[in-house]
């Protein structure tokens, strides 16, 4: 849309567009986050990693960078967006430290702040912030990960002693995968079924001491160690079981539900399910942080792979006195560049999400306004959507980058193994991605109006059909701009140039609406089918429903990217981002080409043109690949990848190799270029 | 084709079909491969892992199970197929041990045997087999992984001293990622450019001592350590550099090229490139072994994920007093079952490959027949193809299984992290998969007739167009059976039932032929384009060329599966395998649905029917999921996964949970089923 890309684009301009509203937090981190304990140490044992990361967390607490999210009266900044941005930056440095910090100040501290009341804040919050009180967020049980409303741990009130009895009824009910539990945690926010006067009021949270001052477990508490994991060696995940542990009444985090001395239960929210999800909803920041951290790791992996591919030679060019660097191969470009484009797209979508989250949370927690339920549900759905997109993209992209670096990518000294192993759990923690996709789908299907509807309600979805168009179109960034672009699409769809942004947007919108309408129709038909079990009504179309969520995510992300291009002022940077946006849009359509063909949005010849257009974009963007990773502005000292270090004599060695090649080509040697299509075993 | 699947199928029948020609080797391993050092130890340090695996390799040598591939006069069995089968079995136990064994007896021992002559055999082979002489296969250089014909290490003959001078000219020429180098290796087979009388005769191999008896490096040899890797902690990969190391003339492995005392070079193969690839071709067993080992790891991962998914409960079924196990979800089935089907398909393709390899190698190395060049090239291409298919499938499937097991899948105690990390390098070692795909494509494009043609030759591909049909159709397992099935397809393609095996085969064949013809046409057009650089002639269509190779692999695999179903005698097992074969065929077509739509092999309505048919197959196969992993016949003692252990009181706990659920549903609690579409944060 904005013309050709000039040969040279200033990466600082890209960085400035990407830095966005919390640019100062990013700058501060780049300049000052440099403690030697912060970087991963390759080959350290699990014990060494845990000790280093505990030290690093203490250092981090002392730096004042953990308080962004906490209330000002406790020395925080009450700046939710800064808090998430800070986690994103920490994720570049060491993911164990990022997760440890997330557990301490996000989950444990966040629950204490948001589910507790002033007496909890006054007594504990300063020690939480200083890391003098390391804590856990003990929700997940071995037998219940995703369905936490069905947790089996019970906490039963006894008016005679004015205490709760916290109990783990069987092994599947033990708390599992709990960060900070195996080594450091002194207290835990424990989630359990609140039972008083013989009635279960659903899941609530208590602040429970788990270790004595000497480090031994408190009476009745059994602490286990999850032991070594695929990654995150510095995070001490463990297991907690409670054998009738006595918990004082005051330790109930009672913002949303209170138990009087005599055992009377009160709450401002009558419906138990609604209350529970309101409590959970306050903790949305954790999910936003995990998505952002996944993107940081993805950027670093791409930074390494793109730079390596720009100097790594593989085969000699036929008939030429040079070897080709791997970034020059079309298939290598097909691996790296669409992933790079999607990383930019997700960055801008994350930026938009963080702004939304900040505004919603600031209204409630800083300005004391009433919760806007629609806005809150919308935020939770968007957070789930982007967590899924960013973590799935991280898993796929970091894997691809590892492979793109060959044997070098398999060595820990080149960072990629740590990035892969550490982020691997992101797709299944803070909400399993498949389950989160269902959450997103539910939001779409009900338009947030039937917020707490049951699964049975899927059988009664007829009424939502009318809102499909409205709900799909009302929720987006930069609506006016998008509408203008879509309306400007000239002529018939199958004649429009593929680089027309309006056409791209139309394709994304059409697919989402069509999927959603189809899902609703199929659910309605199933529910009208006699004898079909309620589970099967839904399960029969689960793949369709999840695809609908995925198409929604794709559109939200594209719209965020379009808005970002629009606000880019530097003409060169804008032209480049515009092309990158084209690549994101067209490679996303290409990846789901079957759907567009099946639904007559692409003819066969246009489908072939699509592939050719993507290849053309790759050729155009290839010279800018390094500029695009420069735009991530990752400080070299954070990368800790040996292959990025200029080896002494490297240039001389390259020159020597070229000279040898010339000599060999000049000799009466056999045709060396045959090797471009041959390959030996390698070990 | 063979009717409905009975409710119960005996997994022993599946096992017997899968065990194939080397069933006795598999049985022996299952019964006797049980040394405590063989299993991975979770949380061990790299040093501990290396020491354990060295011990285990010694134990393995003592067991007599490493000699299958060696000549009978040295105590081996001259049984190439048994050798690969034995590696496949070892891969279930510990992949570090499998790779260590592969380096010692496959690469090092194999090169010594196949590139050396009797004086090398007599002097060293017994010590190699007993592990008294640990050795390395030093081919790959830091700067040259894939293009080993361009290795920079030189070995220059001096008639005055009758020695070679082995030299590493610069750092990019050091040998890298070399197994056995960092700790154990005493000698190495080193690949270098052979120069004598001022002429470079291309890459040859020498047997070179690298460590003295006291473990110190030999004079002039610098040994480095690659340090910790993503996985394979028990393999001591390292780096070797040579500073003008003197190597006696007799240490040249001289089966394919000899240097006389006066420096005269002789060889039975005049063309240097052809000689080099003949030498490499003898080492094809390594690539076949890696593919087979990848499949073993895949089977184990699926075994764990399928069994876990059969007991893991997630949400309550709406309106029912039970929780659904995750294997009951359509989307979970969509993850596990097509991967399971493809694993069966690849198993049978690997079985066919191993038989072919065995027959080709036995003819030459045991019966002393002339090399059948066509058969050898065909074998190398097939080995490359299946290595790509099996290792890519392993990477994707083990990742999926990890995620399917949620947090439990992230704990080392549940084995999946080791399987993922250890196999990760398989896609890029023993030939990078992208480069191997090019090798496969070259075979298809030239019909093996222009075996050593250069890349420039791509411009002269016109002559091969005529052979496309012939070469595509002539190379396959069970040709007569396949032809009969294809010929029997009734009526028009768009009316044939999708479970018709002939139709499935036709679709695979059509796609391969069409891709191949298109690639040839585009290459021809490019080469006729004036001013197009030779590199661009090829690079412009690289994606198309690699896709062609992929479609070829898919067909070869399907045909092997079809042949295996055909030879299954037990009717129940046959009916089940037939359905699994349908799922492999249709999910493969579904994954590339865009292509079939674009090329009018599927109408839009048939494309939708395809998805519905795959879903129907999933429903049919779901009750047999555990039977299908039982068919892999992996001994429980090899699995080393805590989640597969029956926990004490598990059944009681499940019953208790169901009772609680009933009680809650009976209570006046809110609608708990809403949670099926909600999800909390989890940490």
UniProtKB/TrEMBL annotation, chains A, B:
Region called Disordered, residue ranges: 649-683
Compartment annotation: Peroxisome
Predominant location category: other
Single GO molecular function: fatty acid binding
Domain Acyl-CoA oxidase C-terminal: from-to ranges: 505-635
Keyword Lipid metabolism among UniProt keywords: yes
Domain Acyl-CoA oxidase/dehydrogenase middle, residue spans: 136-245
E.C. code: 1.3.3.6
Keywords in alphabetical order: FAD, Fatty acid metabolism, Flavoprotein, Lipid metabolism, Oxidoreductase, Peroxisome
Protein name per Swiss-Prot or TrEMBL: acyl-CoA oxidase
Organism: uncultured Blastococcus sp
């Amino acid at each position: 849309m904005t013309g050709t890309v000039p040969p040279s684009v200033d990466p600082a301009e890209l960085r400035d567009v990407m830095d966005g509203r919390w640019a100062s937090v990013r700058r501060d981190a780049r300049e000052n986050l440099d403690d030697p304990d912060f970087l991963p140490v390759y080959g350290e044992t699990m014990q060494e990693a845990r000790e280093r990361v505990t030290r690093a967390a203490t250092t981090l607490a002392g730096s004042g960078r953990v308080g962004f999210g906490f209330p000002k009266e406790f020395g925080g900044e009450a700046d939710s967006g800064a808090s998430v941005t800070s986690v994103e930056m920490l994720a570049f440095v060491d993911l164990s430290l990022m997760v440890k910090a997330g557990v301490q100040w996000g989950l444990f501290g966040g629950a204490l702040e948001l589910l507790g009341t002033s007496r909890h804040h006054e007594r504990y919050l300063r020690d939480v912030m200083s890391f003098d009180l390391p804590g856990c967020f003990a929700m997940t049980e071995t037998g219940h990960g995703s369905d936490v409303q069905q947790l089996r741990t019970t906490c039963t009130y006894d008016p005679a002693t004015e205490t709760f009895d916290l109990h783990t009824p069987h092994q599947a009910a033990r708390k599992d995968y709990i960060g900070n539990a195996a080594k450091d945690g002194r207290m835990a926010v424990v989630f359990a079924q609140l039972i008083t006067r013989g009635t279960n009021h659903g899941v609530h949270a208590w602040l429970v001491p788990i270790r004595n001052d000497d480090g031994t477990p408190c009476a009745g508490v059994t602490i286990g160690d999850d032991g070594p994991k695929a990654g995150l060696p510095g995070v001490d995940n463990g297991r907690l079981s409670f054998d009738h542990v006595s918990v004082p009444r005051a330790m109930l985090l009672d913002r949303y539900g209170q138990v009087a001395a005599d055992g009377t239960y009160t709450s401002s929210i009558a419906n138990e399910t609604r209350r529970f999800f309101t409590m959970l909803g306050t903790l949305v920041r954790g999910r936003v942080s995990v998505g952002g951290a996944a993107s940081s790791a993805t950027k670093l992996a791409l930074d390494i792979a793109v730079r390596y591919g720009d100097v790594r030679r593989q085969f000699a060019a036929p008939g030429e006195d040079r070897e080709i660097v791997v970034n020059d191969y079309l298939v290598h470009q097909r691996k790296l560049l669409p992933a790079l484009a999607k990383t930019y797209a997700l960055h801008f979508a994350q930026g938009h999400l963080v702004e939304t989250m900040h505004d919603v949370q600031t209204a409630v927690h800083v300005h004391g306004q009433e919760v806007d339920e629609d806005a809150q549900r919308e935020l939770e759905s968007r957070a789930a959507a982007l967590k899924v997109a960013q973590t799935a993209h991280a898993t796929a992209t970091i894997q691809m980058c590892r492979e793109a670096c060959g044997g070098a990518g398999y060595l820990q000294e080149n960072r990629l193994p740590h990035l892969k192993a550490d982020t691997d759990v992101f797709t299944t923690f803070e909400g399993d991605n498949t389950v989160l996709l269902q959450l997103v789908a539910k939001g779409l299907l009900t338009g947030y109006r039937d917020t707490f509807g049951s699964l049975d309600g899927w059988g009664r979805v007829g009424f939502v059909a009318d809102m499909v168009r409205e709900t799909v179109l009302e929720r987006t960034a930069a609506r006016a701009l998008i509408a203008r672009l879509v309306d400007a699409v000239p002529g018939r769809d199958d004649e429009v140039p593929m680089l027309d942004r309006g056409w791209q947007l139309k394709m994304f919108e059409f697919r989402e609406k069509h999927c959603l309408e189809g899902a609703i129709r199929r659910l309605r038909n199933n529910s009208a089918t006699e004898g079909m079990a309620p589970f099967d009504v839904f399960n029969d179309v689960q793949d369709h429903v999840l695809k609908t969520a995925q198409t929604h995510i794709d559109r939200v992300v594209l719209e965020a990217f379009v808005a970002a291009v629009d606000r880019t002022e530097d003409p060169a940077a804008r032209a480049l981002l515009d092309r990158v946006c084209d690549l994101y849009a067209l490679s996303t359509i290409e990846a789901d080409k079957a759907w567009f063909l099946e639904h007559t949005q692409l003819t066969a010849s246009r489908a072939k043109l699509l592939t050719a257009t993507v290849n053309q974009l790759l050729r155009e963007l290839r010279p800018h690949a390094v500029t695009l990773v420069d735009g991530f502005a990752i400080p070299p000292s954070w990368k800790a990848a040996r292959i990025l270090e200029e080896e002494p004599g490297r240039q001389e060695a390259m020159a020597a190799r070229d000279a040898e090649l010339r000599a060999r080509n000049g000799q009466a040697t056999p045709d060396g270029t045959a090797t471009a299509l041959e390959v030996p075993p390698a070990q």
